[in-house]
Amino acid sequence: INEGMMYGSVNGGGNQRIIGSKPNGNGYKVGIQNPRVSNVNNDGIIAVIPNVINQSVVTSGDYQNYYIGENNIKLSHIIDYRTLMPANYFCSVTIIEEDSGLADALSTTIFTLSYEEGLKFIEHFNQTYQKDLKVIWISEKPLDSTSIKANSSTELYVTTTSNLYNTLITK
Fold first, then answer.
1. How confident is the model at residue 39 (pLDDT cuts 50, 70, 90)?
2. CA-to-CA distance for 80 and 171, rounded, in angstroms?
3. Can you state the angle between helices 115-129 and 100-111, rounded to 10 degrees?
């Protein structure tokens, strides 16, 4: 950016930073990976954020970094600080926020909280720091009445904060 970069996308694993808008002024489309599909082609995208400009889209989940425990059970690398066991509330949590480092810390934190605790945390954070965090939870069960079944071929649900209602495109 300091060298004159006006637009583009930088992808660093689960962290994607969108710089500016496209040359035509439109925002970028950013896909959220389906945490239960290993290939990231059309089948591997569970939802699309359609108009991202000058934001970071950062996901923490249980599907890229994990280990296999007893009885061949896949366990997340993200540890719940209360139980000292792998967090298992969600498949993934995505944060949309300008600061990529902050989004990374928050996606990991919210991944370790129940949905209700996460909502309270986000509300408090937004009020304290005058932010408007956008959050996407991917889960194996509906989290509330706004949860949307991702598609007919998967048993996953997408839930968002209210500032993303009617914006996210599920695939």
1. low
2. 30
3. 150
Give the integer Cα–Cα distance in Å for 113 and 95: 14
Mapping DSSP onto H, E and C, the string for the chain reads CCCCCCCEEEEECCEEEEECCCCCCCCEEEEEECCCCCCCCHHHEEEEEEEECCCEEEEEECCCCEEECHHHCEEECCEECCCCEECCCCCEEEEEECCHHHHHHHHHHHHCCCHHHHHHHHHHHHHHHCCCCEEEEEECCCCCCCCEECCCCCCCEEEECHHHCCCCEEC
- Which pTM does this prediction carry? 0.90
In 3D space, the residue among 99, 103, 65, 89 whose CA is nearest the CA of residue 137 turns out to be 89
What CA–CA distance (Å, rounded) separates 2 from 52? 21
**Burial of 18 from C-beta contacts in 10 A (0-12 / 13-18 / 19+):** buried
Torsion sign, CA atoms 1, 129, 78, 143: negative
pLDDT tens digits along 72-125: 888 889 999 999 999 999 999 999 999 999 999 999 999 999 999 999 999 999
